[in-house]
From TrEMBL:
Keywords: Cell membrane, Membrane, Protein transport, Translocation, Transmembrane, Transmembrane helix, Transport. One of its GO terms (molecular function) is protein transmembrane transporter activity. Forms a complex with TatC. This is Sec-independent protein translocase protein TatA. It comes from Persicirhabdus sediminis. Residues 51-64 have a biased composition (Basic and acidic residues). Its main location: membrane.
Length: 83
């Protein structure tokens, strides 16, 4: 059973969080804080897409390359050929 500890955030909770953030950081710092969060989210998204691209390209490369067959052992010489 997978439940959240506090449940999903509703409208009232979001307003309370916004007011708390406004009180903690001030009105002047709020746009700067939001800009930093936005940049961080963009970098995270780019890194995630790059990682997914690397995984899919590695999967396609392994599917394209044929599996090498093991070499056949050399034929043994019989005793009559040595003489």
């Amino acid at each position: 059973m997978n439940t959240l500890a506090f449940g999903p955030l509703g409208g009232q909770e979001m307003v309370i969080l916004f007011i708390l953030i406004l009180l903690l950081f001030g009105a002047k710092k709020l746009p700067e804080l939001a800009r930093g969060i936005g940049k961080s989210m963009g970098e995270f998204k780019r890194a995630k897409e790059e990682f997914e691209h690397e995984i899919t390209s590695a999967e396609t490369e392994t599917k394209k390359t044929p599996v090498a067959k093991p070499a056949q052992p050399a034929a043994k010489k019989s005793d009559s050929e040595d003489a």
